[in-house]
Amino acid sequence: MTRALLGCIADDFTGATDLANNLVRAGMRVVQVMDVPNARRAGPPQASAHPLGGQRGHEVPSVGAVLQPLDTEADAIVVALKSRTVPKAEAIAQSLAALQWLQAQGAAQIYFKYCSTFDSTAEGNIGPVTDALMQALGTDFTIATPAFPDNKRTVFKGYLFVGDVLLNESGMQNHPLTPMADPNLVRVLQAQTPSRVGLIDHSVVAQGEGAIRARIAQLKAEGVRIAVVDAVSNADLLRLGPALQGMPLVTAGSGVAIGLPPNFGVAPSHEAARLPAAHGLQAIVSGSCSVATNQQVMDFIKAGKPALAIDPLRIAAGVDVAAEALAWAEGHVAHGPVLVYSTAEPSAVRAIQGKLGSDKAGAMVEETIAAIARGLVQRGVRQLIVAGGETSGACVQALGITQMRIGAQIDPGVPWCHAVAPDAADGLHITLKSGNFGSTDFFTKAFAQWQA
User: Fold this and answer.
1) Are 42 and 284 in contact (CB under 8 A)?
2) Quick one: which of 39, 84, 89, 41 has its CA closest to 180?
3) Please, what CATH class does the domain formed by 272-451 belong to?
């Protein structure tokens, strides 16, 4: 087995595949593992949350635990955690366990990946995890930028834009778990860390590697430990990449990944994205309540394709909604893809939270969707789309998937992946779609890719 060149820690499951996708596009062979390999246990999903609310605990290995090695070759390894919305101490513990395991795989550089909308609370977890990783790695400086121009996330003068609007005008101000009310990333990050936060602005980035390195040296001399970096285009990210060579820790969204593989002598290659041929039935399960996913659900329904909505109030009343959904799917899935969804508009989400309580509603819906996903796979689905970060985590854990090989991109940040699972020994193609990612016709386009 070759030693990993790059070790990545992602704070949710769809974010992990988002990052892996960009690394594969740049030529790296990437394997994504679900949680730290020796931290898994049987049972229901761990540390999960749903846009309606709800989360549970998580088991992490103790320092010095015997770590299970990766059993396949990869240039980069991405450890997918569910640490975005868990308590700060738990997020730190999970991330340090992932770091320990990645170091054991020989990773020469560590990449802490968070969302391109910088999803976090006033307390973290981006700042606290960054501080903990810096301390563990013995480094006194790193960068931070969620920029991902391919998905219209750009940073200018330290302000995060989503498309043509500031972060706090993009809909993220209404996120039920991590509402983002301030688009100034220097301010947001400074509130989460005792480390001094600075800025490498676009006028520096535009000048390339030498100017970026000089600005880093200046900031370090001024006592700055974390620098937000502007990037409004892929060209900016490609200029930034060489300046990060040898930096022990990089923290970013997935965009920065396009500029790192050349530092390791890796060039783009179609072989990096090669997966086995797809087969079997097709299905979609969706728990995201984002604007993009709502549009994707409506597009699928308007196309006249079979879709079934999950009602949290019926779950709360004791109805076996998962069994009902699977019985419904059996009548349709042989004829083409089916969609089962709990996706709803923000007003509907708030109404359900008000009736059931956010924790109860979220846990019930997430467990139901995960049970439906597993039932679909047991019934022959071998091409599965999962929409929503927390929903993806629950489904992957319910399916018993421990690692995935990353394949070709469907839309920016969303690749097809391949895994072997207890209920799919012949292989399962799965895509984990972040709620806000993908074109309006994503659900139909993803399956069509296999016929291209």
Assistant:
1) no
2) 84
3) alpha beta
State pLDDT tens for residues 172-226: 998 877 889 999 999 999 999 999 999 999 999 999 999 999 999 999 999 999 9
* Residues in Cβ contact with 23 at an 8 Å cutoff, skipping those fewer than 6 apart: 6, 8, 30, 75, 76, 78, 257, 260, 261, 406
The CATH superfamily assigned to 6-269 is Putative sugar-binding, N-terminal domain (3.40.50.10840)
Rounded Cα gap, residues 377 and 428, in angstroms: 8
Do the two domains 6-269 and 272-451 of this chain adopt the same fold? no
Token pair for 27: 């030529």
CB 213 within 8 A of CB 221: no
The answer to whether residues 28 and 6 touch, using CB atoms and an 8 Å cutoff, is: yes
CA atoms within 13 A on the CB side of 136: 21
Question: What residue spans define the domains of the chain?
Answer: 6-269, 272-451
Please report where in the chains the tokens 């047991």 appear, as a residue: 378
Angle at 19 between CA 367 and CA 392, to 5 degrees: 10
pLDDT-based confidence at residue 47 (cuts at 50, 70, 90):
very low
Buried b (16+ CB within 10 A) or exposed e, 369-402: bbbbbbbbbeeebbbbbbbbbbbbbbbbbbbbbb
Distance CA 35, CA 31 (A): 12
